[in-house]
Design brief:
Layout: E1 21-30, E2 33-44, H1 48-62, H2 71-89, E3 98-99, E4 101-107, E5 110-116, E6 120-125, E7 128-131, H3 141-149, E8 154-156, E9 160-162, E10 172-173, E11 186-191, E12 196-202, H4 204-207
Antiparallel strand pairs: 1-2, 2-3, 2-4, 3-10, 4-5, 5-11, 6-7, 6-12, 8-9
Family: Belongs to the PP2C family.
Keywords: Hydrolase, Magnesium, Manganese, Metal-binding, Protein phosphatase
Catalytic activity: O-phospho-L-threonyl-[protein] + H2O = L-threonyl-[protein] + phosphate; O-phospho-L-seryl-[protein] + H2O = L-seryl-[protein] + phosphate
């Protein structure tokens, strides 16, 4: 908590034997600006990718020379740099861990939400629940088109999956599907004013069982 906002977090594996979801919260100073960085990272194929993104994404973003002057491009660069560095770190091993990332970046009266995968950000503005990120699923028309244009395919295997394997169409990691499963974030900006009451970032473990409202 600081003078402008407060935040909290919770995490539970439910009935699963292992935990692959991680969160990160960070308040920092950049060029005289107080910034807040908050993220949820939902791993698949093991926890390594989610742990790596948790440990490195915000540091890569804060150190970007354009973090204050061109925040959106800095976010996009940081997402892609973190992804490529994670893949390099896994280079000598035949591994295919991946992770979503839903992040909220507070810079002054600007809130930037950047999303890769199906963890979701929802704000409450004037008493109304509004999703400020889009779940990246392979059956979305534009995502399917992008995957097919890159030489991939989407097929039904209990749910729609990239290559019949992965149920999200964008992610960090996922080496074997990297040509199709990109870490390019979709970024939405919201103004922080008196009508913006709160923001929730959560993995699909929550949104699969509750509505945005």
């Amino acid at each position: 908590q600081n003078g402008k906002f407060s935040y909290g977090y919770a995490s539970s594996p439910g009935k699963r034997s292992s935990m692959e979801d991680f969160y990160e919260t960070r308040i920092d100073g950049v060029d005289g600006n107080v910034v807040g960085l908050f993220g949820v990272f939902d791993g698949h194929g093991g926890a390594r990718a989610a742990q790596y993104v948790k440990q490195n994404l915000f540091s890569n973003l804060i150190s970007h020379p354009k973090f204050i002057s061109d925040t959106k491009s800095a976010i996009a660069d940081a997402y892609n740099h973190t992804d490529s560095e994670f893949l390099k770190s896994e280079n000598n091993q035949n591994r295919d861990a991946g992770s979503t990332a839903s992040t909220a970046i507070l810079v002054g009266d600007r809130l930037l939400v950047a999303n890769v995968g199906d963890s979701r950000a929802v704000i409450c503005r004037g008493g109304n629940a509004i999703a400020v990120s889009r779940d990246h699923k392979p059956d979305q028309t534009d995502e399917r088109q992008r995957i097919e244009d890159a030489g991939g395919f989407v097929m039904w295997a209990g749910t729609w999956r990239v290559g019949g394997v992965l149920a999200v169409s964008r992610a960090f990691g996922d080496r074997l599907l990297k040509q199709y499963v990109v870490a390019d974030p979709e970024i939405q900006e919201e103004k922080v004013d008196n009508t913006l009451e709160f923001l929730i970032l959560a993995s699909d473990g929550l949104w699969d069982v509750v509505t945005n409202e």
